[in-house]
Amino acid sequence: TGRRLAAHQQRIELTACAACGPIVVAGDAAGALHAYNTDAEFGAPRVSRSPGGEAGVRSVALLPGANGGSVLALCASLDGLFSASLVQVEPWPTAPLPRARLPAPPVGGDTGGCPLHLAAGPPGGVFCAAGGAVA
């Protein structure tokens, strides 16, 4: 879109990002997720603090909701934490995003404790990669 996220004004070190429709979610080095709505001119972001430690965000994947009114943000952190936040598109902005800690998905193979990399897959699906395995 050519517009810039306001993170440079807040001195946030962004480490990962993903987009789905008008929603852009960026993770930072402190483990927080910042959700922006491009239809709202990148207005005030909705922030979700890490439900665990303070490890940085390694990757983010976004899955569209069934009705188009929400996006599920999945996050993998450098410490292996796997979490999810439901981002409601309307109204914007609202209160901070709730965020739930989830068990890490089984990837298979020897992952050596490597953090997961996430990518949105077919509708309702997510690809995970760690070590030498992809699932």
Task: Give an overview in words.
The structure is a single chain. With 135 residues, the chain is mostly beta strands. It contains 1 helix and 11 strands; from the N terminus they run αβββββββββββ. The chain has one helix at 7-10; strands spanning 14-20, 23-28, 33-37, 46-48, 57-64, 70-77, 82-88, 100-102, 117-120, 126-130, 133-134. Strands 1-2-3-4 form a 4-stranded antiparallel beta sheet, with no helix packed on it. Strands 5-6-7-8 form a 4-stranded antiparallel beta sheet, with no helix packed on it. The longest helix has 4 residues, at 7-10. The radius of gyration is 14 Å and the shape is globular. The model has no long low-confidence stretch (mean pLDDT 75).
Percent in helix: under 10%
- The rough form would be described as globular
Instruction: Estimate the mean pLDDT confidence.
Output: 75
- Give the beta-strand count: 11
| Number of helical stretches of at least 4 residues | 1
Question: Beta fraction of the residues?
Answer: 35-45%
**Which structural class matches the secondary elements?**
mainly beta
Based on CA atoms alone, the radius of gyration comes out at: 14 Å
* SSE arrangement, N to C: HEEEEEEEEEEE
The major pleated sheet works out as: 4 strands, antiparallel
Identify low-pLDDT runs.
none
Order of strands in the sheet with most strands: 1-2-3-4
Distance between the termini: 32 Å
